[in-house]
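Changelog note: in this version the structure field was regenerated for every chain. One regenerated record is shown below for reference.
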Amino acid sequence: MHLDGDIHLSTAQVSEAGLKARNEDCLGFFMPVGNLLTTKGACALIADGVSTAEAGAEAAEYSVREFLADYFDSPDIWTVKKSAQKVLTAINRQLYARSHEYLSTSRGHLCTLSVLILKSRTAHLFHIGDSRIYRLRAGSLECLTEDHLTRLNESSSCLSRALGMDTHLEIDYRTLPVETGDLFLLSTDGIHDFIAHDRLRQLAGQANAEQACRDLVNEALQNGSHDNLSCQLVRVDRLSDETLDDLTDKLTALPFPPELMPGLKIDGYEVIAELYASSRSQLYEVKDLDSGRPLVMKTPSVNYCDDPAYIERFVMEEWVGSRIDSPHVVRVETPNRPKTFLYYLMEKVDGVTLDTWIAEHPDPQPREAIEIVRQIAEGLKAFHSRETLHQDLKPGNILITPEAQVKIVDFGSVHVAGIDEIFVPLERDRILGTVHYSDPLLRLGHCTGIRGDIFSMASICYEIFTGHLPYGDALERCQRPRDLRRLSYIPANRFNPILPVWFDRALEKALSPELESRYDSLESFLNDLTHPNPELLTARDEPIPHRGMLVFWQLMSLVWFVSALVLMLLFWLG
């Protein structure tokens, strides 16, 4: 990977039972190397088994061990937040289940947990309970977490939140920018409850981290700590200082391929034919000379050979595509030989693009058309499950095989949330996609998430059933917020009268210029496309009925609903 998430840390930690017979605290730290450090970061965490729960020590040890194992095993394309929350939810569920294997509540598997993940130039904090994370910067010590305690009286309190306490996990999460020289202190209450804040700052800030941890434990004991004593120091010694020149050198390590002609051989692949060419890239059918297998090779356009932002996006296409696994997304192939030029390989899919299919099927069978839409949605789900947005869904980027299988192609405009967390010394292009199908809010600088992909899918669905676009050519002129407010949806049944009202209203909702008015999930959109939603049976701009005619309109609504059900059966069976 070309991205540099390098970070240099020094750590120290101490954990002792103190005056107790058993140490129920647990500490952990893991700093991977290479790409894993870039995509997942380094992790320090501290857990304190609840002393009133007999299995608190087991809960603390289990939480630390499982978090370190499962977090770093989660998909490298996920964000820190999604990865950590998925793992923490599973840990909490397991601890809760273990607690309820016992008849006695004193055997509960309960613990606090505070997690610090340092990825690129950002600190990610996850916290539940009364362990703490502090940051010492420029001589100032700040507590970054909040104790989850319920005060019983002036002298006593109890935990209000802990891992394993409830089926619903409520965990605090925050992010902070990291600077070279930052020092993070993780501690259990046996330490910070018995050392004053200023003294904590003095002891933690010592040059020798090992000695600092030892002094923190000793001072807490001297001050009367009767609990286990655990602390951990993590110092940021150096962050990545990669420059744009450094990044450009890595991105241009492989040269752009020359113009490829049929018969030319490159890295053991013979060019058969050019399939597609644009100002941004080219596609070629090639044959693997070892296996004889046909493949598709995508090459970058020489127009961008001096554009590091373009090259980075091209490199990321292969990285992202290799992590999307779905029968409805074209498969990126891993080359079995070293590359001497910049390109990537995909499976060869026979078929036609969806725009060709639409032109050849001006009056499609509803069941056939909706099946295409369903498969497009399945492909999009594969992207979204990896916290990845396609952002350029259009008929030209969708293939239909002779067996009527749909495959989404092209990864040139994808947005990967996990990669966005990694600092790069260049400005990435955020305005991508095709104007007739992409969400106009994207061009206005809004972050629309999966609703943007749903907008594109709804535009395609509209075109499949009508042969037209939902806003005509108005999206081309949508450059300012006021242009967005002027958009007027063209009812789909104006072009295709057999389309039911509820079907058209579902399209209109997905294509709303207002983000909050759209569907927030593909499942909801598909459900409303295939099942009459009573909320979508009301005609547009229908005035509120007069009170004296309420019964009449209620009867009419019933007749309308029954008619819609009959129309639905005729629509799908026709």
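Spot check on this record: The chain has three domains: 7-240, 250-347, 352-573. The radius of gyration is 29 Å.
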